[in-house]
Amino acid sequence: MLRVRTLRVRTRALKPFIRLVFSFYLWYNYLMRYKVPQDVQREDQILWFITLRQLVMLLVGFGISYVIFNNMKQKYDLGTVEQIFIWLPAAISAAFAFLKIKGIPLAQFILLLIEHFFFRFPKRYWIQQGGEPFVSITTRISSLDKKKEDEQETKVFSKKKARELAQFLDGQKSDVAKRNLKST
Questions:
Q1: Taking the complete model, does pTM exceed 0.85, yes or no?
Q2: What percentage of the chain carries pLDDT values higher than 70?
Q3: Can you give the C-alpha Rg of the chain in angstroms?
Q4: Does the residue 56 lie in any domain?
Q5: Looking at the domain assignment, is residue 154 inside a domain?
Protein backbone atom coordinates (compact mmCIF):
# COMPACT_ATOMS: atom_id res chain seq x y z
CA MET A 1 0.00 0.00 0.00
CA LEU A 2 2.76 2.35 0.76
CA ARG A 3 4.30 1.93 -2.63
CA VAL A 4 1.10 2.84 -4.48
CA ARG A 5 0.86 6.14 -2.67
CA THR A 6 4.43 7.09 -3.50
CA LEU A 7 3.84 6.39 -7.19
CA ARG A 8 0.74 8.55 -7.18
CA VAL A 9 2.62 11.36 -5.54
CA ARG A 10 5.38 11.13 -8.14
CA THR A 11 2.95 11.20 -11.05
CA ARG A 12 1.13 14.16 -9.54
CA ALA A 13 4.43 15.99 -9.24
CA LEU A 14 5.31 15.16 -12.86
CA LYS A 15 2.01 16.32 -14.36
CA PRO A 16 2.91 20.05 -14.38
CA PHE A 17 6.30 19.23 -15.83
CA ILE A 18 4.74 17.08 -18.58
CA ARG A 19 2.24 19.83 -19.33
CA LEU A 20 5.09 22.33 -19.55
CA VAL A 21 7.08 20.12 -21.93
CA PHE A 22 4.01 19.46 -24.07
CA SER A 23 3.09 23.14 -24.24
CA PHE A 24 6.68 24.00 -25.19
CA TYR A 25 6.52 21.33 -27.91
CA LEU A 26 3.28 22.80 -29.28
CA TRP A 27 4.62 26.35 -29.10
CA TYR A 28 7.87 25.44 -30.85
CA ASN A 29 6.36 23.31 -33.63
CA TYR A 30 3.20 25.21 -34.45
CA LEU A 31 3.50 28.80 -33.28
CA MET A 32 7.16 29.40 -34.16
CA ARG A 33 6.83 28.52 -37.83
CA TYR A 34 7.90 31.33 -40.12
CA LYS A 35 8.95 31.70 -43.72
CA VAL A 36 12.61 31.93 -44.58
CA PRO A 37 13.22 35.11 -46.60
CA GLN A 38 14.19 34.38 -50.19
CA ASP A 39 15.82 37.70 -51.05
CA VAL A 40 18.59 37.93 -48.47
CA GLN A 41 20.56 40.55 -50.44
CA ARG A 42 17.84 43.18 -49.97
CA GLU A 43 18.14 45.38 -46.91
CA ASP A 44 15.39 45.22 -44.28
CA GLN A 45 13.00 48.15 -44.21
CA ILE A 46 12.67 49.87 -40.85
CA LEU A 47 10.15 52.65 -41.50
CA TRP A 48 7.81 52.22 -44.48
CA PHE A 49 10.33 52.25 -47.34
CA ILE A 50 13.43 53.47 -45.44
CA THR A 51 16.25 51.08 -44.56
CA LEU A 52 18.55 51.48 -41.57
CA ARG A 53 21.41 52.73 -43.76
CA GLN A 54 19.18 55.37 -45.34
CA LEU A 55 17.80 56.42 -41.96
CA VAL A 56 21.29 56.92 -40.51
CA MET A 57 22.38 58.93 -43.57
CA LEU A 58 19.31 61.16 -43.32
CA LEU A 59 19.75 61.69 -39.58
CA VAL A 60 23.40 62.69 -40.01
CA GLY A 61 22.70 65.07 -42.92
CA PHE A 62 19.66 66.72 -41.36
CA GLY A 63 21.44 66.88 -37.98
CA ILE A 64 24.37 68.77 -39.49
CA SER A 65 22.02 71.14 -41.32
CA TYR A 66 19.95 71.73 -38.19
CA VAL A 67 23.02 72.55 -36.07
CA ILE A 68 24.27 74.99 -38.72
CA PHE A 69 20.78 76.54 -39.00
CA ASN A 70 20.45 77.08 -35.21
CA ASN A 71 23.91 78.61 -34.91
CA MET A 72 23.42 80.94 -37.88
CA LYS A 73 19.86 81.90 -36.90
CA GLN A 74 20.97 83.18 -33.50
CA LYS A 75 23.71 85.40 -34.95
CA TYR A 76 22.38 86.55 -38.32
CA ASP A 77 19.20 87.40 -40.12
CA LEU A 78 18.93 84.64 -42.73
CA GLY A 79 17.60 85.11 -46.25
CA THR A 80 16.49 82.45 -48.69
CA VAL A 81 19.93 82.05 -50.32
CA GLU A 82 21.57 81.47 -46.94
CA GLN A 83 18.92 78.93 -45.97
CA ILE A 84 19.45 77.03 -49.22
CA PHE A 85 23.17 76.75 -48.45
CA ILE A 86 22.44 75.79 -44.85
CA TRP A 87 20.14 72.93 -45.86
CA LEU A 88 22.51 71.73 -48.61
CA PRO A 89 24.06 68.95 -46.40
CA ALA A 90 20.54 67.59 -45.82
CA ALA A 91 19.86 67.53 -49.56
CA ILE A 92 23.18 65.82 -50.26
CA SER A 93 22.51 63.17 -47.61
CA ALA A 94 19.03 62.59 -49.06
CA ALA A 95 20.58 62.15 -52.52
CA PHE A 96 23.11 59.65 -51.15
CA ALA A 97 20.34 57.82 -49.29
CA PHE A 98 17.71 57.53 -52.04
CA LEU A 99 19.25 58.24 -55.45
CA LYS A 100 20.22 55.24 -57.58
CA ILE A 101 21.95 55.34 -60.96
CA LYS A 102 21.44 52.21 -63.08
CA GLY A 103 20.31 50.36 -59.94
CA ILE A 104 23.48 51.26 -58.01
CA PRO A 105 23.36 53.56 -54.95
CA LEU A 106 24.94 56.98 -55.49
CA ALA A 107 27.80 56.45 -52.99
CA GLN A 108 28.81 53.16 -54.63
CA PHE A 109 28.46 54.71 -58.09
CA ILE A 110 30.85 57.56 -57.18
CA LEU A 111 33.37 55.08 -55.76
CA LEU A 112 33.16 53.03 -58.96
CA LEU A 113 33.76 56.18 -61.04
CA ILE A 114 36.82 57.05 -58.96
CA GLU A 115 38.14 53.51 -59.38
CA HIS A 116 37.50 53.59 -63.12
CA PHE A 117 39.18 56.91 -63.82
CA PHE A 118 42.10 56.77 -61.39
CA PHE A 119 42.99 53.13 -60.72
CA ARG A 120 42.10 51.06 -63.81
CA PHE A 121 44.09 51.00 -67.00
CA PRO A 122 42.26 51.75 -70.24
CA LYS A 123 41.27 48.81 -72.42
CA ARG A 124 43.87 47.78 -74.94
CA TYR A 125 42.99 46.05 -78.15
CA TRP A 126 45.30 43.63 -79.92
CA ILE A 127 45.98 44.29 -83.57
CA GLN A 128 47.93 41.69 -85.51
CA GLN A 129 51.34 43.04 -86.56
CA GLY A 130 50.35 46.49 -85.49
CA GLY A 131 51.09 48.92 -82.77
CA GLU A 132 54.33 49.81 -81.10
CA PRO A 133 56.33 47.66 -78.69
CA PHE A 134 56.17 48.50 -75.02
CA VAL A 135 58.69 51.19 -74.22
CA SER A 136 59.24 52.19 -70.62
CA ILE A 137 60.70 55.49 -69.51
CA THR A 138 64.04 53.88 -68.60
CA THR A 139 64.51 52.03 -71.93
CA ARG A 140 67.06 53.58 -74.25
CA ILE A 141 66.18 53.85 -77.92
CA SER A 142 69.57 52.42 -79.00
CA SER A 143 68.80 49.19 -77.09
CA LEU A 144 65.52 48.87 -79.01
CA ASP A 145 67.39 49.10 -82.32
CA LYS A 146 69.80 46.36 -81.21
CA LYS A 147 66.86 44.11 -80.25
CA LYS A 148 65.34 44.54 -83.73
CA GLU A 149 68.66 43.55 -85.33
CA ASP A 150 68.94 40.49 -83.04
CA GLU A 151 65.43 39.39 -84.01
CA GLN A 152 66.33 39.52 -87.69
CA GLU A 153 69.46 37.43 -87.14
CA THR A 154 67.66 34.70 -85.22
CA LYS A 155 65.17 34.15 -88.03
CA VAL A 156 67.80 32.25 -90.01
CA PHE A 157 67.05 28.55 -89.41
CA SER A 158 69.35 25.79 -90.65
CA LYS A 159 69.02 21.99 -90.80
CA LYS A 160 71.57 21.66 -88.04
CA LYS A 161 69.48 23.78 -85.70
CA ALA A 162 66.40 21.76 -86.65
CA ARG A 163 68.17 18.50 -85.74
CA GLU A 164 69.38 19.93 -82.44
CA LEU A 165 65.90 21.13 -81.64
CA ALA A 166 64.35 17.76 -82.50
CA GLN A 167 66.89 15.95 -80.29
CA PHE A 168 66.24 18.33 -77.46
CA LEU A 169 62.46 17.94 -77.69
CA ASP A 170 62.58 14.14 -77.97
CA GLY A 171 65.18 13.77 -75.29
CA GLN A 172 67.09 11.42 -77.55
CA LYS A 173 68.08 11.17 -81.14
CA SER A 174 65.10 11.85 -83.30
CA ASP A 175 63.99 9.97 -86.40
CA VAL A 176 65.49 12.72 -88.50
CA ALA A 177 68.87 12.23 -86.88
CA LYS A 178 68.64 8.42 -87.32
CA ARG A 179 67.87 8.80 -91.01
CA ASN A 180 70.81 11.13 -91.41
CA LEU A 181 73.09 8.61 -89.69
CA LYS A 182 71.90 5.82 -92.01
CA SER A 183 72.40 7.93 -95.11
CA THR A 184 75.99 8.85 -94.19
A1: no
A2: 62
A3: 41
A4: yes
A5: yes
